[in-house]
Design brief:
The structure holds two protein chains of two kinds.
Chain A (H helix, E strand, L loop, with lengths): L1 H25 L7 H6 L5 H10 L6 H13 L13 H36 L4 H15 L2 H15 L15 H35 L2 H8 L4 H23 L1 H14 L5 H10 L3 H29 L6
Helix pairs in contact in A: 1-13, 5-6, 5-8, 5-13, 6-8, 7-8, 7-11, 8-10, 8-11, 9-10, 10-13, 11-12, 12-13
Chain B lengths: L2 H6 L10 H11 L1 H18 L1 H4 L31 H37 L1 H16 L2 H12 L3 H27 L3 H8 L4 H9 L4 H24 L11 H8 L8 H28 L5
Helix pairs in contact in B: 2-13, 3-5, 3-13, 5-6, 5-8, 5-11, 5-13, 6-8, 7-8, 8-11, 9-10, 11-12, 11-13, 12-13
The chains are: A mainly alpha, B mainly alpha.
Chain lengths: 313, 294
């Protein structure tokens, strides 16, 4: 197991290296002189000269990459041109907001997806299975920004039950915080729940007809205990890994959800940065999400090995 | 198995039936997939015939009909500058279908050759390219597409390029995995033995045998690309105003939810039904092409 883990960790290094090259390369896509593009509407020659100097744009590409990655390694992701603050600080500020949204979404999707997956697998081939599978396909096909708009129309515009937008920090008022986040979390959790349901269903199906489940039934255990204690525990192992792979979709979804509900998180940060041509922020957010994704998948792989007794040697 | 049960087995499948014929026969039996296909075809016809079937010019503004609820003259209502929503939905189908098609073709055109090459050649080339693919897959789909669209500049064609680039790694990975699984089959060894050149083995012997999973993935990727284009347009990074796109229509509709809810209903319903239909068809296609299913 140790060799597996070491090899798995060693694989991250080249992946991170290529991620950084890719993100650095984005800058080269800018049409024309990057200093001009970075300056935006400000065409003052002194500003352009300053930017050229600051971002070492007069240096050859490999030197610029080395200088950039050197900063990144030390937590220096550059500075926002628009807000004149370090990108790292901006990300750290927005992270808790998106983090809370993602966590709530994850809880909602687990609460819906796993039971639905179990029921579909247990009732395999029946109308219940068909209905649940169909519902999951609906969940995967509905654009989450549209679902958000529909929920706002129903719960805010028509019924006046929930706030349509905005965010209240939990430190200020936990109740208001949850009220503002319940709709966005449901919208974000919806597609994730659909994926989770499909994973749970396909993982449960072979397990339910496995010998050890038949033995548990033969022992006379109540069916509910057989399903939850014997079958589900084994089926959940692959679900953990698959859920980690879906984490990227959760982050992508957060960008749109935050836009619909005007939540000042990570997604709003990158979208605003795009329109302000605040390229350092865009690069910083992309780098950070890629890093988070790689780390999470590493953790999922480790969890897979730790949870699966057959791989424990 | 007794002789009796053997006899009882249905012998529907003619021996030696071509695999694609069997798949087709399986596919038409799947009702959900066929309904999906019918809706997709409907949207394709709608997009092709847009100039003929659209009741109004999708760009024509009319200050007398600003944000009018659905009526007989405007069955889907009008938008914030008096344009007919139905006309914009019909013309907007072009942006969605074009984005779905072009970006997936781009992803296939780049991803499949990469997968063929790395899977067949292996070694250091494979290891290096796969790390680059891993790196691309590590960046969440929409975030990479947003970043690309941001640096390339917002437009429908750049959105299509961005979506194509972000989908490419999936096809490269899938192709490579398929090549690895068929590379050591007997018929490939036989093709080697009779002295076929490498490129002929890859193109004539390997490629045709890995088409089915690629076809399924391409269908599902088209659905994902259509959502991605709508998402980018919703964020203002895809189709630019005044040209219609379902995503950008929703972006505007968001500001008039209390006054003109119909502006938000129809474009979303259009995206949803097209994407759902593609997913239904893709799922059906996957099951039909799976030789283990009957």
């Amino acid at each position: 197991m140790t060799t597996f883990l070491l090899r798995r960790i060693a694989l991250i290094v080249p992946t991170l290296f290529f991620v950084s090259l890719l993100i650095f390369g984005l800058q080269q896509l800018l049409p024309g002189d990057p200093a001009m593009a970075l300056a935006g509407e400000d065409r003052d020659p002194s500003v352009i000269a300053f930017l050229r100097e600051k971002y070492h744009l007069d240096q050859p590409l490999p030197v610029r990459y080395a200088l950039w990655i050197g900063g990144v390694v030390h937590g220096d992701l550059g500075e926002s041109i628009r807000i004149k603050r370090p990108v790292f600080e901006l990300i750290a500020e927005k992270l808790p907001v998106t983090g809370e949204l993602a966590l709530l979404a994850l809880l909602i999707s687990l609460a819906i997806g796993i039971p639905a997956g179990i029921i579909a697998a247990v009732k395999h081939g029946t109308a219940v299975d068909y209905g649940t599978t169909m519902a999951a396909l609906w969940g995967l096909s509905i654009p989450n920004f549209w679902l958000g708009i529909l929920l706002i129309l129903l719960f805010s515009v028509e019924l006046g039950l929930l706030p349509a937008s905005g965010f209240v920090s939990p430190a200020e008022s936990l109740k208001q915080n949850l009220l503002t986040l319940i709709m966005p979390a449901f919208v974000l959790g919806n597609a994730f729940a659909a994926g989770m349901m499909r994973h749970t269903r396909s993982a449960m199906l072979p397990v339910l007809s496995a010998d050890f489940v038949r033995t548990a039934r033969a022992k006379g255990l109540p069916e509910i205990r057989v399903i939850l204690r014997h079958a589900l525990r084994n089926a959940l192992i692959p679900v953990v890994t698959l859920a980690a792979l879906d984490f990227g979709a959760l982050l992508s979804g957060a960008v749109l959800t935050e836009q619909v509900f005007t939540i000042p998180g990570f997604g709003k940060l990158i979208v605003d940065a795009v329109f302000n041509r605040d390229y350092a922020v865009v690069q910083g957010v992309v780098l950070f999400t890629a890093f988070a994704y790689i780390l999470l998948n590493l953790m999922a792989d480790i969890a897979y090995v730790v949870l699966n007794p057959r791989l424990r040697t | 198995m007794t002789a009796q049960t053997l006899e009882a087995l249905p012998v529907e499948e003619p021996i030696g039936e071509a695999p694609w014929r069997r798949a087709l026969r399986q596919l038409v039996k799947r009702r959900a997939a066929m309904i999906g296909l019918a809706i997709v075809v409907f949207f394709i016809l709608l997009a092709a015939a847009a100039p003929l079937v659209s009741p109004y010019d999708p760009l024509a503004t009319n200050w007398a009909t600003v944000r009018k609820a659905p009526t007989a003259a405007h069955p889907f209502g009008t938008d914030e500058i008096g344009r007919d929503v139905l006309a914009r939905i019909i013309w907007g189908s072009r942006a969605s279908l074009l984005a779905g098609l072009v970006s997936v073709m781009l992803a296939l055109a780049v991803g499949v050759p990469i997968g063929l090459l790395t899977g067949y050649v292996g070694g250091a080339l494979d290891a290096t390219v796969m790390r680059i693919i891993d790196a691309m897959l590590a960046i969440p789909f929409l975030i990479l597409a947003i970043a690309l669209a941001a640096f390339l500049g917002p437009s429908l064609s750049n959105a299509m390029i961005a979506i194509g680039i972000t989908q490419m790694p999936i096809f490269a990975r899938l192709t490579r995995a398929q090549v690895l699984s068929v590379k050591h089959e007997d018929y490939i060894e036989a093709a080697h033995a009779i002295g076929n050149p490498q490129h002929r083995i890859v193109l004539r012997h390997i490629l045709p045998n890995i088409v089915p999973p690629l076809l399924v993935q391409a269908t599902l990727a088209t659905a994902a690309a259509i959502i991605a284009e709508a998402s980018l347009s919703f964020l203002g990074l895809g189709q630019q105003p005044p040209n219609p796109s379902w995503g950008s229509m929703l972006n505007t509709a968001k500001n008039f939810m209390a006054q003109a809810p119909w502006m938000a209903i129809w474009p979303g319903l259009a995206i949803f039904s097209l994407v759902l239909s593609l997913n239904l068809f893709g799922d059906g296609l996957r099951d039909a092409l799976d030789p283990r299913r009957e």
